[in-house]
Amino acid sequence: MTSKFPSPHDVEKIPGTEGWERMYPYQYQFVEEDDDPERHQYEKDAFWFYDGLHYPEPIYPFDFIWDEAWFLALSQNNTRVFSLPPVNGIDHRNINGYPYIATVPVKDPEEVGARVEHFMERAGYYYENWNDLEAKWEVKMKGIIGELENLKIPGLPELEDISAVKEGTGESSGFHLLQAYDKLIDLGIQCWQYHFEFLNLGYASYVTFMDFAQNMFPDIPAQRVTQMISGIDVIMYRPDEELKKLAKLAIELGLAEQVKANKNIDTLRSVLGEANGGSKWLAAFEEARHPWFNVSTGTGWYHHDKSWNDDLTIPLGSIGDYIAKIQKGDSIDRPLAEVQKQRDEITAEYRALITTDEDRATFDQLLGTAKLVFPYVENHLFYVEHWFHSVFWNKVREVSTLLTGHGIFEDVEDVWYLKRSEVKDAIWDMVTAWATGVKPRGQKTWPREIAWRKGVMEKFKAWSPPPAIGTKPEVIQDPFAIVLWGVTNESLNSWAELAGNDDPTSIKSFTGFAGSPGKARGKARVCRTVAEVAELEDGEILVAPTTSPSWAPVFSKIGACVTDVGGVMSHAAIVCREYGMPAVVGTGHATKIIQTGQMIEVDGTTGEINIV
Amino acid sequence: MSGTEPLVVWFENCRNDMVEEVGGKCASLGELINAGIRVPPGFAITSAAYRHFMEGNKVLSQVDDILKGIAENDIASLEKASEIIRTEIEKTEFSIELEDQVAEFYRKLSINSYLPAAPVAVRSSATAEDLPDASFAGQQDTFLWVRGVDNVLARTRECISSLFTGRAIGYRMKMGFDHKDVGLCVGVQKMANSFTAGVMFTLNPSNGDRSSIVIDSNWGFGESVVSGEVTPDQFLVNKISMEVIKRTISDKEMLYTVDHVNQKSKKSKVPEERRKIQSVVDEELIELARMGKLIEQHYGRPMDIEWAIDKDMPEGGNIFILQARPETVWADKKIEPISKPGSTAMDHILKTMMTGKKL
Question: Which of A289, A552, A573, B331 is the most buried (most CB within 10 A)?
Fold first, then answer.
């Protein structure tokens, strides 16, 4: 079987990064043939695609924790818990810091048959008791987020507190620090266990509804199917709603100008402290921050994806924008009622075109299931990727602050260049040295290694990972892979085509998934970071690797949205549909082809993009 | 003259229950207009006008005399009689009143078409079209690209006289119809001076998807598309959201335009610069699809429609429906449900997962 995609073992090595493999878990390496012929063959036969949705840039050694966490969580549920008949877990590899994943089909038909019974019982139970189990999930999730927030990272005192003696604990702060670090990591892994508890079942139900609708209506655009599940209020919109509420409150209290003028929270606090109603607004602001400002400005997968709480100028800036909009007489409310009305009309029209009672019954059934799973599929993102992760990164920074204080790191942000197991080693080095009253060995070794790793990461960032490698299979059966990456023949072919073009800026038109209908023409603004997002001007077209819920306020500004990665259920597509603006998603390379300032035309109905 | 029955009626004032007065074609055109469908404008010269013409000039009474004693299968005698009757009809003047009215309607039609003398199609619209033998109705003539009120009147007389072809006379004799009972109306309709034209299906003919509308188009008259002489542009419009979801632009080598001298269409080459560009703009596609959807709703079934965009008419009022008939290929197929009776959501989820997604 020929493939347009490179073989995993033929991917170029980047000069000057030799030895990079030690920064990551060893099982993620593609192996050489003479090293392990069987594994080598398996890797050649599998189809690996770059998980750019979650990872728009290479993963830092510490941040790799989430990749391992979901590697375990998704796979265990497919294979060991719900027994998905045709497919086991999703296997992972790493090239130059970029993760590649491959679904692992169950090849023996007998085994597939044997798994059906378990699947029907187990998955069936989850669908039947979805709401109860989801309520339980929320309790569990809030529980571990509470534990995380309350987790104390103890310092290493010159002399232990007298209580160690008087209470006869027999334990030291060094031991407590090791314990706290273990707990921190465990909570992270546990959180990801819950992340995938429902997710693949949710996606399976989506895919089924999508499939059925496409069976009934071969021409139905995927976004029309998802539109039938839109307009359900989920907490993903809540952070943005809170900003709008605060904007309205500022106007109501006559504080609009002060809030607009002061993006720095300390200045604003002192300005409002003297103003009438100022304390009321500040109290509302503080209330909104917990938990709603625990929303990441990136995907949440990277330590540098700051949350609103980490940088309050971001939400304050958006509140200011909203105030200005209201003052101009524009509505800032998400047109939920309109979205719901359109959803209901479209659903009714399609339903009326179904000719048999049996199929109409199935349509209702599957639409019902898709709507049932929708809130979880969206809400988990806030709990895990945003709330938990935002708190988690800062806890790791607390650990790093200690290591920096003990001379093992030169900077708190150096911690991300170590694997989490290496951080544990460094803590051991530190606590034993602290206990002993000597200098940690790491003071000399880690800064050297980190400096080298920083160079490697820079080289990784400059490298373009191929969208897919290996051998393309006939079908993929994992619902997660189908939905999120929207891997279809079409997109992969066009990706492969674009990947073969040495000068991406010479491309004048290309396509992606039609994510949200409508056409728009405007100036492109390529945004890779939240800082670039701040430069967006009214009516510009946002071109980004992917978008996150914290970008929500920009959607009231832009004319359309284009992303590199994501399917019709990706964040950008969902939000654009809610705002009734065009989106083309999963283009593969839009951020490389389009340059800021170019006039582009986006057709969210056909997925076409033209540079004019 | 009774004076109460109108002699000339605008299409938009015609309705399905007026077949007796305005004939089947004009009645259904009126019905389409009132359903919100734009058809090329025009008027009907009514059966009352026909009767007044025939009675007022004693033509009809002469018909009986002329046909006396001729057998229904005596083709030679029938043709001879036909010749006499038709000549008589074609040289008989209309009443001043009718001429005035036709002239007035034609003048208004021309004004509304932004033309000094609008080219029209003059065609008979028989009141007996609902008779089982359709060929009877088909006997009468159609005249295209007629200009000027005198020509319209002359062609109208020719339409009337075509009721008296030898074959038509013989047919009525055989069926036992009285010649006096036959009614005839004449439709006078602006020729669509097609800039672009084509066909539209209110389902996707390639897969039967009823949520789609497929539009084929080429420059010039729709003839090139209907006859298959050209690979037309093809557009897929979502019937529900009314959006163009797929555009296939073809290399269109030829088109049909009008030959005014011979009053018919003629083939010509598409200029190089127009061959590979979209022959209908999106706004027009959406407007067409909207009309297609209305027509489908009106008839309660998927339809096969001919349309044209008229270059004489102003933008926003230049898209016309020329013909609409039921789609038969998919509509007549028996549809088997995909779902097994009593199947559960879990059954479907399992099935979908087993099938997987093709790459």
Answer: A573
> From the list A119, A218, A492, which residue is nearest B350 (CB)?
A119
CB pairs under 8 A between A and B: 140
Query: Rounded to a whole number, what is the distance in Å from the CA of A496 to chain B's nearest CA?
Result: 14
Into how many domains does chain A fold? 5
> What is the 3-state secondary structure of B158-170?
HHHHHHHCHHHHH
Q: How far is B236 from chain A (nearest CA, A)?
A: 9
A268 and A340 in a single domain? The answer is: no
Domain extent, residue A373, equals: 202-234+336-379
Q: Chain A partners of B211 at a C-beta cutoff of 8 Å? A: 217, 219-220, 349-350, 353
Q: Are both A21 and A92 inside the same structural domain?
A: yes
- Is the pTM value of this prediction over 0.90? no
- Statement to judge: residues A477 and A531 lie in one domain: no
Residues of A within 8 A of B358 (CB-CB) are: 474-475, 489
What is the C-alpha to C-alpha distance for residues A389 and A137, in angstroms, rounded to an integer?
Answer: 17
Answer yes or no: do B357 and A120 touch at CB < 8 A. no
**Measured between CB atoms, which of B241, B245, B353 is closest to A204?**
B353
Residue A492 in domain: no
CA distance B209 to chain A (A): 5
Q: Do residues A20 and A120 share a domain? A: yes
Distance from CA of B160 to the nearest CA of A (A): 45
Cα–Cα distance, A445 to A113 (Å, whole number): 55
Alpha helices in A385-488 (DSSP H): 389-405, 420-436, 442-462, 479-485
Contact A123 B352 (CB under 8 A): no
Which neighbouring-strand residues pair with B307? B198, B321
Dump pLDDT digits (tens) for A460-493: 988 878 878 888 888 878 877 776 665 444 556 6
Do the chains contact at A116 and B350, CB–CB below 8 Å? Answer: yes
Examine the domain organization and report whether A15 and A112 are in the same domain. Answer: yes
Superfamily of domain B194-326: ATP-grasp fold, B domain (3.30.470.20)
B55-114 pLDDT, tens digit each: 877 777 778 888 888 888 888 888 999 999 899 888 888 999 999 999 999 999 999 988
Cβ-based burial of B266 (10 A; exposed 0-12, middle 13-18, buried ≥19): middle
Q: Both A118 and A16 in a single domain?
A: yes
User: Within a domain: residue A2?
Assistant: no
In a domain, A214, yes or no: yes
CA count, 13 A, side-chain hemisphere, B20: 3
Looking at the complex, report in whole angstroms how far the Cα of residue B343 sits from the nearest Cα belonging to chain A.
8
Token pair listed for B3: 């004076």
* pLDDT tens, position by position, A235-248: 888 998 999 999 99
A221 CB near a chain B CB, below 8 Å? Answer: yes
CATH number of B8-190: 3.30.1490.20
Residues of chain B contacting residue A204, judged by C-beta atoms under 8 Å apart:
349, 352-353
| Residue in B with minimal Cα distance to A492 | B359
Return the domain boundaries, chain B: 8-190, 194-326
Interface of A with B in 501-530 (CB under 8 A): 514, 517-518
Same domain, A300 and A354: no
Rounded CA separation A329/A120 (Å): 54
| Same structural domain, A407 and A278 | no
Location of structure tokens 């001429």: B99
